[in-house]
Structure formats: C-alpha cells, structure tokens
Amino acid sequence: MASYLQVENLTKSFGDLILFQNISFGIDEGERVGLIAKNGSGKTTLLNILTGKDSPDSGLITYRRDLRVAYLEQDPVYPENLTVIQACFQSGNEITELIAEYEKVMNSQDHSNLDAILQKMDILQAWDYEHKAKQILAQLKITNFEQKISELSGGQLKRVALANVLITEPDLIILDEPTNHLDLDMVEWLEEYLQRSRLSLLMVTHDRYFLDRVCNEIIEIDQQQLFEYKGNYSYFLEKKDERMNAQNQEIDRANNLLRKELDWMRRQPQARGTKAKSRIDAFYDLEKKAQQTRDAGNVQLQMKGSYIGNKIFEAKHIYKSFGDLKILEDFNYIFARYEKLGIVGNNGTGKSTFIKMLMGEVAPDKGEFDIGETVKFGYYSQDGLKFDEQMKVLDVVQNIAEVIDIGNGSHLTASQFLQHFLFPPEKQHSFVYKLSGGEKRRLYLCTVLIKNPNFLVLDEPTNDLDIITLNVLEEYLQQFKGCVIVVSHDRYFMDKVIDHLLAFQGNAKLKDFPGNYTEYREWKDIQDSIEKEKEKEQSAKPKEEKTQPVQSKQEDKKKLSFKEKREFEELDNQIPLLEEEKTKLEEELSSGMLDTEELLSKSNRISRLIEEIETKTMRWMELSELM
Predict the structure, then answer these.
(1) Between 416 and which of 49, 326, 412, 525 could a Cys-Cys bridge form, CB atoms 3.0 to 4.6 Å apart?
(2) Virtual CA dihedral for 65, 66, 72, 73, nearest 10 degrees?
(3) DSSP 392
(4) pLDDT(554) > 50
(5) Could you tell me the pTM of the whole model?
(6) How far apart are alpha carbons 601 and 91 in whole angstroms?
(7) What is the distance between the alpha carbons of residues 507 and 489, in angstroms, rounded to a whole number?
(8) Between residues 307 and 517, which one has the greater pLDDT?
C-alpha cells in the first residue's frame, strides 16, 4: 500500500506544558485512523500542525506528492454574508482555487494561459463542481442553497463544512470531532458513507460506535507518548487493558526496587566512588519510573444525592410551536422516580426547547409543568460555559462548595472532587483561559454535579468531552440516586445510561420507547420496512385491476387440478386470517403499552407476516387466473 503521510519525531509544547514529545506514526492508503487522547493532550493541536495551521517545535511531516487532503475543523467558520452555495466555493481547495483563477482570467485582457487552465479544469471535472456540491448538500439535508450562513444552526453549519470536505473526493480526510452538532440521522449517514467509500482518514472523535465501525487503526496520545493499535475501538480497549496491566506491574516492581535502593542510599557515607555514583543515577531513574501515573481512567465517583420524593414532574396539556413549526401538541407526561430518560430526534424537532420549558427558560404556549417540591435540578446546557477566564480552576469549584458530602459519613474536598474528573493538582492551579475546550466542558460538568442535585438535566453533555471523561460520567450516572434526562447524539452513551427514550419525530409527533437507543433503532428499522411494504401493496393494487381482464383470457388454456382447487380454497381462508393478525399486531405496536422485548418480538413477527401474505397472495392470484 502507498504511504500517504509520515510523521517523524514530532514535538509540541506551550511554555512548560509538553503536549507530545518525539511521536512518530504513518497513514497508508486505505487506513482509517482514530486519534484518542484526554482533553488538553493536544489532539486538535496535532491536526492543526498536520494541516499547516500550526507549527511543531521539532519533527518532520511528509505527505505523498500530489496527495489531495481535506480538513474538517471542529468549529468551522465562514463569512456570514455568504449563501450556502457560495460557501462551497470559499473552502480553498484545489478545484475552487482553479475556478477562481479561471474567473480572474476571463475578467482580464490576458488570456495567454487560458488553454492550460481549461485543460486542468477538464481533468479535475471542475465544470461539475456546483452540481456535485448541491448533490452532497442535499444528501446532508441542506436544500436551501441560497440561505445565508448567518441563518444556519450549528448542526447545519457543520453539514455545510462536511459537504465542502466531501465534494472534492480527496485521498485523505482529516476530521476533528465530525459528529459534534450532527443529529443521529446525519451521524449514521456519515458513518455509512465512510464505510462504503475508499477514503483514507485521520479523525478525532469521542463517538465510540463511530470509531468501532469506521476505523481500522487507533492511535493514542498518553503521557506525551504515542501508542498504536492495529484494529478498531473494541480491539483498542482490549490491548490498552493489557498494556495498562503490564505497566502497573512494572510500576509495582519499580516500587519494590525503590524501597531497597532507598535503604541503600540512606546507609551510604557522604564520600562516594564512581561505582556508587552510577548506582545513585540509576536510583533517580528508578524513582521517576515508580512515580509514573497509573491508569487515570479507573476512577469511580459516588455521590450522596439529595432526597427526592415520589412526585417529580408532570407535563399537563403542553402546546408549543414557532410559527408553522409544531414542537408539542397536547403533550402529557408523568415523570417517575429514579427514571433515566433519553431524548433523541433530528435537529429542529424541539429537543432543547422541551428541556428549556422544563427548566422555566421558555414558556409553553399552553399548559404547564407541575414540579415536585423536593426536586433539585442540576442543569448542563449547551451554552452554559460562562466562567471568569482569569480565575483558577480550583477557585471556580470552591466558590460553589469547598467540601462535598458523598454519603456514608465520607466527604471530598473540592480538590479531591476535581481529581475524580481528571484535573490533577497542577492543572487545578491553572487559570481557566489556559484550558482546552474539552477541559472547560469538563470543569462546567463539575460545577453542575458538585451542587448535589437529585434531578440531572443534561443537554448534549458529550460534545467536546474525551472518552475517559465520558467513562467517568457514565459510571457516575449509572450509580446516581436520582432522576436523569439526557439529550444526546452519542449512541454509545445513551445505551449505557438511559432506560427508555422519548423520540421527537417532528411536527409534534413523539414516541415513548421502553428501551435504549440501539433497541429503538432496530424497532424503527422494522417499522420503516413495514411502511415501505404498505406503500408497495397500495401501488400494486391498480396494476392488478388493469391486468385482470388480460389474465382472464387464459381460462381456456388450462384447468385447475383437484389438488390446486384444494390449495386455492385453503389460501382463500388463510389470507384473511393473516391479514387480521397483521392488523391486530399493528394496533398493539402503536399502543405504547408494550415493553422492549414484546416490541421487538411483535415487530419481527409482523415482518414475517408481510412476507407470508405477499407469497400466498401471489400464489392465490396465479391459481385464480385458471379458475
């Protein structure tokens, strides 16, 4: 396989903070590499160095000659006065630069190099660029090509940027958090697109299902070093566990040796010979190894949780719309004690609006939320990052609480609490403005949890958080003695945390599903196939009526045998019974009274019924022609 990218002995630091040191790796044709590291370890910095937006302290980066590379930034920015289609001509790729050069020549008097430009435009198929741009945008559900960039939501802007990356069909794509701000349908579309394509890629993402299904190699930055794993995310977890066990055993051995060496050091006289000096140097090397940090991801945090009564909240006849866009219509819901509810749906269907109504930030058009007296909300919002940038990390948390009660008579100081969320003591004394975007999100999460709420409302909590932090948060929520509502596009996170879903399907349609996201997706796929079969049946009916007279001409050609007559009579009796069973199952599936197991079982049965009805109907039609 051809080598696309080689990185050798790359080092980057900011002052005393070393992000990575002498790291080396390569990407070959067809490789799909996921980059994993804690927030603040330099993931985005590394991508910026690879794309020329930043420079390393030392090291060498080599791309294959004429390699086409595209980069999706974490937070793409375009001039606000541009339209969507104009933004596709502002991405600065090879084709758009060629088109700009062509237009410049055409508007000038000098046409001397026009033939060369035209030839290159033919080779790169630049004439089809606008058509391809609109095609990709439509696949990403951006259809208003004249809409201003300033009018787009965060998710729409990310999709425009993603379209810009995909239009040119590059050899290597570099993606920084591609799933952030995308709804679940778009995440799954991108996942399938990358699985089908022959693109090579390097990406940073916290979406673990995405990593598992798309990537064939994982590289991890840990303690300024780089580790490579030749497999997907599941393989990475297995091999990292082996590596950490080996490392911990090595640290244990180093600690045992250190104790012996320390005893020897204490017994030595002040004047030491050359032989003793070499042993002293070895002692300090051993001390450094013994002080290595063990696996920081194995932290566990249990909180006491405030008492919560039986009455949580009740939504009574809620109506909400924005112009013609309906969000809720006569919505009623009684929230149960210790319930863990996940909310999913496409962007613009009203998920965040629902949360804001519950929190009192947005008023419903009609109806009310009746909230229990013992409910103490902890609200993590998408736009909640409002810190004094000049404060130290520890001061931010201590201003809320200096000591946290975690139950059973135990307490944590603010500093200990921060360590559970992967802020070591040296980071706690850093100023907020020095934190990465993901570290600020993690600090914001700490400020929500430290208030000891009994009802957590988390609106897109997984954006910008690293996988280690997500593991800590998932463990916390699984043990949490209270209620939880989570809005998230992270399927892995939802599967681990929630026990049922509220799916916003648009136009005020909601589905209360008793299961996790993967179970809901399986059920939805079956429902979609049922709908398609219904449409196929309805479209086939007129054709049957038209062809009936033609078929009747075959009466003279052949008569039914005795066996075929019996078969025809049996089919005549069986088909109505199967139709009746199908109708009954459809009513049960739409009743909302079934648990997950029953839903999946009955959905599977109805798909088999449809096939059986179709087969028997076709046979009945064949025999009826001969009657």
Answers:
(1) 412
(2) 50
(3) B
(4) no
(5) 0.74
(6) 49
(7) 20
(8) 517
- DSSP letter for each residue of 582-595: HHHHHHHHTSS---
**Predicted pLDDT at 560:** 63
- Interior CA angle at 396 toward 392 and 398, to 5°? 110
Could you tell me where the beta strands, DSSP code E, fall in 196-285?
200-204, 217-222, 225-229
Characterise 42 by phi-psi region: left (phi > 0), alpha (psi -120 to 50), beta (else). left
Half-sphere exposure for 214 (CA within 13 Å, toward CB): 30
Tell how far CA 105 is from the center of its chain.
44
Give 1-67+171-254's CATH code, choosing from 3.40.630.30, 3.30.310.180, 3.40.50.300, 1.10.10.10.
3.40.50.300
| Packing angle, helices 233-267 and 274-290, rounded to 10 | 140
Other CB atoms within 10 Å distance of the CB of residue 486: 25
Amino acid in the structure at residue 176: D
User: Which 3 state secondary structure label does DSSP give 393?
Assistant: helix
State both tokens at 246: 């080996």
How far is it, in rounded angstroms, from Cα 466 to Cα 322?
35
Q: What is the pLDDT of residues 353-364, one digit of tens each?
A: 999 999 999 999
Distance between CA 267 and CA 466 in Å, rounded?
47
Q: Which CATH superfamily hosts domain 313-513?
A: P-loop containing nucleotide triphosphate hydrolases (3.40.50.300)
| Cα–Cα distance measured from residue 341 to residue 333, given in angstroms and rounded to the nearest whole number | 12
Contacts of 309 (CB under 8 A, 6+ apart): 337, 372, 373, 374, 375
Q: Which DSSP string corresponds to 101-139?
A: HHHHHHTSS--TTHHHHHHHHHHTTGGGHHHHHHHHHHH
C-alpha closest to that of 567 among 615, 532, 605, 521: 615
